[in-house]
Amino acid sequence: MDNINSKVDYIVDEVIKRITKNMTIPVEISGRHVHLSKESVDILFGEGYELTSKRELSQPGQYLCHEKVTLIGPNGSFHNVAVLGPTRSRTQVEISKTDSRLLGVKAPVRESGDIKESASIVISGEKGVLMIQEGVIVAKRHLHITPEDAKRFQVKDKELIGVEIISDRSMILKNVVVRVNENYKTRIHMDYDEGNACSYEKGTVAKIIKYEGNKL
C-alpha cells in the first residue's frame, strides 16, 4: 500500500509540475533602442538609405539592425545604441529610468507609440544629426500575447495584470499592460532596470496574477 501511495504521490507531483510549467510565460528584457521613421533614416544615414537586418527578434517582423546611433542628452550620451526595424511612422527612443537620469532627460513611463509631450533628445548617425522634440519614453512593462493564449490565461487586451517573476530574487510586478494580437509571440517584456531588480537570466519565466482595479 505504501508503494502504491508513493507512486500516486509521484504522479500527482509530476502533473502539478507540468501544469505549472504550461501556465508560465517567458520573460525578455530589452536594452535602450531606437525606432526610426523613414525621414529620420534619411537624415541620419543618407537620402534613400535602407536599414539592414542583423537578426530577427522574438516578435514576428521585428529585427535588430546593423545600424547604430548615438543618443545625446544634456548630461551625457550613449554610443552604439541599437536601431530596431522596420521603420515606423514616428521616431521613438526607448530607455530605462537609469538611462533617463544619466542622459538628463525626463522620459515618462508610457506604452509604445504614446509619445505626445514626451522627452526630447538629439540623435546622431553616420551622415547626420537630428533633434526630436518628443519621442523619448521609458516603455511600460507589457505582455505580448496571442488571442489563443489570452483565452488560456484569461486576460484581455489593454488589461492591467500582475506577474510574478520566478527567479532566485523573485518579485511581483503590477501594472503590466496586456497586448493581444494574432501576430504576436507570447512574451513578457521589461527593461534592464526591472530585469536586474529581479535577477533576470535567460530562460526566466513568470506567472500571471490578477488583482482588483486591473483596467486601464
From TrEMBL:
<keyword id="KW-0808">Transferase</keyword>
<comment type="pathway">
    <text>Polyol metabolism; 1,2-propanediol degradation.</text>
</comment>
<protein>
    <recommendedName>
        <fullName>Phosphate propanoyltransferase</fullName>
        <ecNumber>2.3.1.222</ecNumber>
    </recommendedName>
</protein>
<dbReference type="Pfam" id="PF06130">
    <property type="entry name" value="PTAC"/>
</dbReference>
<dbReference type="InterPro" id="IPR008300">
    <property type="entry name" value="PTAC"/>
</dbReference>
<dbReference type="GO" id="GO:0016747">
    <property type="term" value="F:acyltransferase activity, transferring groups other than amino-acyl groups"/>
</dbReference>
<comment type="function">
    <text>Involved in 1,2-propanediol (1,2-PD) degradation by catalyzing the conversion of propanoyl-CoA to propanoyl-phosphate.</text>
</comment>
<keyword id="KW-0012">Acyltransferase</keyword>
<keyword id="KW-0862">Zinc</keyword>
<keyword id="KW-0479">Metal-binding</keyword>
<dbReference type="GO" id="GO:0046872">
    <property type="term" value="F:metal ion binding"/>
</dbReference>
<comment type="similarity">
    <text>Belongs to the PduL family.</text>
</comment>
